[in-house]
Write the structure tokens for this entry.
Amino acid sequence: LRQALARGEFELHYQPLIDLAAGAINGFESLLRWRHPERGMISPGDFIPVAEDIGLIVPIGEWILREACTEATHWPPHIKVAVNLSPAQFRSRNLVQAVLSALAHSGLEPKRLELEITESVLLAETAANLAILHQSRAHGIRIALDDFGTGYSSLSYLRSFPFDKIKIDRSFVRDIADRPDSVAIVRAISGLGRSLNISTKAEGVEPMDQLDLSRAEGCLEVQ
């Protein structure tokens, strides 16, 4: 893993984001993959926790930002790119500079970059992490709250920072066609987002019934 970055073994795959009103792709989320020369493709669930533990996630995260921003410059100008951030990247205190450096190096407009964070970012050193988010947003970068509905899911997060988007966790979307409680949760989060003027995205949408129900319950975007 320590040699993977230097050897160019990491690659980014992209998952489409669909604007439900327009019925068209409006962006892609970058997903990190490791193509090991002997073991083949290694799941991010296997290597990202290790990278975080041994301090590699910061340089890997900077590579992801540069690569994703550069790739996005070859897309149509209305298509954005979403990049996940690790809590460890916030602890480095160099995150804003890394983001701005990736934008400057690639020439991508800041409004086309969307940074996704999880609730765990706001659990520790909240004031410092909020300052980083505000600095990023001041440059025109969009900020999304990932996996909403799992973990601590404190509504105070939505008051502490003006998020551009809430991502509804795939665990609710997966069961939306079979469980009334999942429908109720998706509907509630969509309504909350609408009331706060925050966009909502349903994550992990696969079959058409999930798409139709996500749209019917008020989601503005699906992934």
Observations:
- The CA atoms of residues 80 and 189 lie 23 Å apart.
- The chain has a mean pLDDT of 93.
- The beta strands are 10-19, 24-36, 40-42, 80-84, 113-117, 142-148, 165-168, 199-202, 221-222.
- The radius of gyration is 17 Å.
